[in-house]
């Protein structure tokens, strides 16, 4: 099937098998290898990208369903000469060890910062709470880090949070 999607600000027309995941399209066909194949079941978050500004597990999204959508990968968050504030904060806070989960963590954090409203731990469900370390941990709970860099990841996100 022929689809056209906007990837990191560039329109891309591709022919895809209807069974192909967005993750496989990004990595195998578009050579954007930032998003990682971790569990391939949507449980680890290593493949997190932004779809129309909202975070999503690209291993669970069918490429054919992305026709006309805007996809942002870690490669599109910032540029070598001008990093995204989260990328800078992750470096300053040493928020990665092996780096495997880092692209997914960055995309998830970027999406999370734009998601208002309560989380599962918010006391007042009508509130838009401050992004305390507890709120950040809850909102980032779908992204796993095998190395255990969570403390530094939370502090890096907290530095950038409004």
Summed up, what is this model?
By secondary structure, the protein is α+β, with helices and mostly antiparallel strands. The protein has helices at 22-29, 74-77, 85-92, 102-113, 133-139, 150-160; strands spanning 2-7, 10-15, 48-51, 54-57, 70-72. 31% of the residues lie in helices and 14% in strands.
What is the mean predicted local confidence, pLDDT? 95
Give the uncertain stretches in residue-range form.
Answer: none
Strand adjacency order, main sheet = 2-1-5-3-4
How big is the Rg? Answer: 16 Å
Give the CA-based shape: globular
End-to-end CA span: 42 Å
Question: How many strands appear in the DSSP assignment?
Answer: 5
Structure annotation, total helices? 6
Strand content: 5-15%
Structural class: alpha+beta
The largest pleated sheet is described as:
5 strands, mixed
Approximate helicity band: 25-40%
H and E order: EEHEEEHHHHH
